[in-house]
Specification:
By secondary structure, the chain is of the alpha+beta class. About 35% of the residues lie in helices and about 20% in strands. The chain folds into three domains: about 20-235, Histidine kinase-like ATPase, C-terminal domain (Heat Shock Protein 90), CATH 3.30.565.10; about 245-380, Ribosomal Protein S5, domain 2, CATH 3.30.230; about 515-640, Up-down Bundle (Four Helix Bundle (Hemerythrin (Met), subunit A)).
């Protein structure tokens, strides 16, 4: 039996244990873990080693201000011990340790806003695909219940005279009690997690299997991960060196993949790896990854980044915001040689050295993305599909890099399948075209069927189809690309008259007294619209809605209304004077049939709303009007 494992018996009698209930979310999570049928169970060890590494990092950071915390034991390490007879696997560290309150808080609750989303996703994931989610959501400790029928955690906070034992079978709750001298004899500081393994987990009692898992998932850990043999000898399983401090030529692709999985807690391969050393006014090493899958907190309202800042291999924080929020999906490490080691987390935001790193890092990531887009368009298209909506936040926020971001941006359009760049768009502009036209909304398929596209398509003009919420915001910036302004097809008057129609696509010109028609519709619709006008956008449809020239376009106004921030602007109804339904309005107006004009006007407006994805504000009135016209039509057919 390894001396690092707790003894089954000892002279000191354990103190009475306090019973605690798990937080509701933890209980649900544990039920999933205890009854897990997932096949990728190896990741429990990755998560426990990662937690141990974090504990060592925290101690190193706190010891900067309080060196006495490490005075008796300067060498930080993670120790793995196997007891085949007792079916125990123990993971110990001599890091910061936990107080009694921290044991209760850290192992009894999950203080994350994404917990419920994680549980919902974990419940619905196919078998064998949970490993990435477990690490992403910061609940890795509980993954140990996939292989353990009971877990015991002994923890001794650095600088504290007391140690405590947390114990649970993963069922209704857990106990916490004071540790005995025997239990802490081999743990003067730090935490030991002892897993009482389930009957079907014999593989995790074999040293070669533990070594395989460590080399696969935890080779990048900066602290030695050592396996203690039955005779007490120690064997280091990982390289325990900072991968980012090596030159690129020394790092094999599989080493990058291992580091990616360890740093990001994702499965699979990174979409992009950025590894370099900066030397000059400042020296720092960089290892960043663009994930292959979106992180769980990609659209968290706090929009925080997760790049870790080290100073001379000492972990400082992952909240230094080393990249702007629109690059928050990037994960990795920056290791500085120049930032003061004892800098507080609060001072980091205003530190000029950190600000210089932030600026250079942002530029380098964007440059790498541009290179990927130029050289490997298919790979970049996958990155854009995953993170494009977030990158477009930068077009709205980052004036300095706006042109670069516009060049990176890719869009769906009426120009065909696949994504298009603005450079592609400008190269395909029609003779007489001077603006870049776009249509914004919440649904791509609905945009493709929008009546506002008709005149542009009849002229062969490509239109960008923008279906992300952020599109309604960045397009308000009055931007240009290669001196071509962006123009919404749902706002103001779209003058396409300088662009010739394609052969055979020219619409019928309006006939009759259009001024009287417009006047009749305005009277019938009253305050429901801000204006009525003859459209130069429509070819086949009877009517469409557009926003007034000043203020937000229709998509932005709807988003603002959802947040109770809408301006309350009424839309403009544009009509196709050559359409049969519109000529029926004109005929009814000319014959003085005001009831018919009112019904037809209401139908035109509600039809336009439906085509825009909205319900009529008064569905009952809409149905009544429609029924009257259907009945009238059927009567005419019967009479004929």
């Amino acid at each position: 039996m390894s001396s690092d494992l707790p003894s089954e018996a000892g002279p000191a009698k354990p103190a009475s244990a306090d019973q605690h209930a798990f937080q509701a979310e933890v209980s649900r999570l544990l039920h999933l873990m205890v009854h897990s049928v997932y096949t990728e169970k190896d990741i429990f060890l990755r998560e426990l080693i990662s937690n141990a590494s974090d504990a060592c990092d925290k101690l190193r950071y706190e010891a900067i201000a309080a060196p006495e915390l490490m005075a008796e034991d300067q060498r930080l390490a993670i120790t793995l011990s196997i007891d085949k007879a007792a079916r125990h696997l123990a993971i110990a560290d001599n890091g910061i340790g936990m107080t009694e309150a921290e044991l209760v808080d850290n192992l009894g609750t999950i203080a994350r806003s994404g917990t419920r989303a994680f549980l919902d996703r974990l419940s619905s994931e196919p078998q064998g695909t949970s490993s990435g989610l477990i690490g992403q959501f910061g609940v890795g400790f509980y993954s140990a219940f996939m292989v353990a029928e009971r877990i015991e955690v002994v923890s001794h906070r650095a600088g504290s005279g007391a140690a405590f034992v947390w114990s649970s079978d993963g069922a209704s709750g857990f106990t916490v009690r004071s540790a005995t001298e025997t239990e802490t004899a081999s743990l003067p500081r730090g935490t030991r997690v002892t897993l009482h393994l389930k009957p079907d987990t014999d593989a995790y009692l074999e040293p070669y299997e533990i070594e395989r898992i460590v080399k696969t998932y935890s080779d990048h850990i900066l602290f030695p991960v050592e396996l203690v043999g039955e005779s007490g000898e120690r064997r280091q399983l990982n390289s325990a060196s900072a991968l980012w401090q090596r030159s690129k030529s020394e790092v094999a692709p599989e080493a990058y993949a291992e580091a990616y999985r360890g740093i990001t807690h994702q499965v699979g391969e990174p979409a992009l790896t950025v590894h370099y050393k900066a030397e000059g006014r400042q020296s720092y090493a960089v290892l960043l990854f663009v994930p292959g899958e979106p992180p769980f907190d990609l659209f968290d309202v706090e929009r925080k980044g997760r790049v870790k800042l080290y100073v001379r291999r000492v972990f400082i924080t992952d909240e230094a915001e080393l990249l702007p929020s629109y690059l928050r999906f990037v994960r990795g490490v920056v290791d500085s040689e120049d930032v003061p080691l004892n800098i507080s987390r609060e001072m980091l935001q205003n530190n000029p050295q950190v600000a210089q790193i932030r600026k250079a890092l942002t530029g380098r990531v964007l440059t790498e993305l541009v290179t990927l887009a130029d050289k490997e368009a298919d790979r970049f298209a996958k990155v854009w599909d995953t993170f494009g909506a977030v990158l477009k936040e930068g077009i709205y926020e980052d004036f300095e890099r706006r042109d670069q971001l516009l060049g990176l941006a890719r869009f769906h359009s009426t120009g065909g399948a696949g994504l298009r760049s603005l450079k592609d768009y400008v190269a395909a502009m029609r003779p007489g075209q001077t603006e870049i036209y776009y249509l914004a909304g919440s649904n791509l398929e609905r945009l493709k069927a929008s009546p506002q596209l008709e005149a542009a398509l009849a002229r062969g003009v490509e239109v960008l189809l923008l279906s992300d919420h952020v599109d309604s915001f960045w397009t308000t910036r009055g931007l240009k690309f290669e001196e071509k302004s962006l123009k919404s097809l749902t706002q103001g008057e779209a003058d396409l008259s300088a662009i010739p129609y394609l052969e055979g696509k020219s619409p019928e010109p309006p006939t009759g007294d259009t001024a009287a028609l417009v006047a009749a519709l305005k009277t019938a619709l009253g305050e429901a619209v801000s204006d009525v006008r003859i459209s130069n956008r429509l070819v086949a449809s009877a009517a469409c809605l557009v926003a007034p020239g000043a203020g937000p376009d229709l998509a932005l106004e709807r988003l603002l209304q959802q947040r109770d921030q809408g301006l309350g602007l009424k839309p403009v109804l544009e009509i196709n004077a050559a359409h049969g339904l519109v000529t029926a309005v004109a005929n009814s107006a000319a014959q003085g049939r005001s009831d018919d004009v009112r019904d037809l006007a209401g139908l035109l407006l509600d039809q336009a709303r439906i085509l825009d994805g909205e319900l009529p504000p008064d569905p009952a009135s809409f149905v009544e009007r429609l029924n009257r016209f259907v009945a009238r039509g059927l009567s005419s057919v019967a009479a004929g």
